Amino acid sequence: MTARTVARVVVADDQTVVREGIVMLLGLLPGIEVVGSAADGEEAVRIVAELTPDVVLMDLRMPRCDGVEATRRIRAEHPGTQVVVLTTYADDESLFPALRAGARGYLTKDADGDEIVRAIDDVLSGDAGLSPKIQRRLLERLAEPARTLPEPSYEPPDGLTAREVEVLRLVAEGQSNPEIARTLHVSTATVKTHINNLFAKAGLRDRAQAIHYAYRHGLAEPPGRPLN
Asked: Would you call 105 helix, strand, or coil by DSSP?
């Protein structure tokens, strides 16, 4: 670690063996004190509120509350706590939602102890704690053509939240609830809640109406229509 003496860390992972293994590894690393562990995102948010750790090592795919949503809540409610994702997945659908939610570091579970210490040190110093693999992917993504579907420059209609608009777009693409859950890395129950909420706000009865509503309000493009 740098000028800091000991970094207080919480580990969040739904797999008991993995979670206990990470806790054991961290206990052997210099400058790190594990102050708690959580089996899902809800528990992670609660423990952060109780213990105010410096860093959470956050898995992404967990029950009740996934790692992206837990990261978003922790960063909003406890900005003094940094989040470093520690996950099996390095695909875009995992990486970018986590970074948008406020994670400052991102490691895959093949990271060794030195990489974990370095990532924790980096985020506590105000830098990004990204593995070389993740840094390469970010550079590759920056070199790719920008997505042409514009984000709305206005407030979504009928009081829809940004996440409800995101769900609505995926509905308009023809994705089922389980497919949407996999895309957003949330539970199917969470997807159903978002759909019920947006249906109620927009006065929709079914998915066909929802798709027409998305097209009418410019939240999604009909198939075959050129993107602006």
From this structure: strand
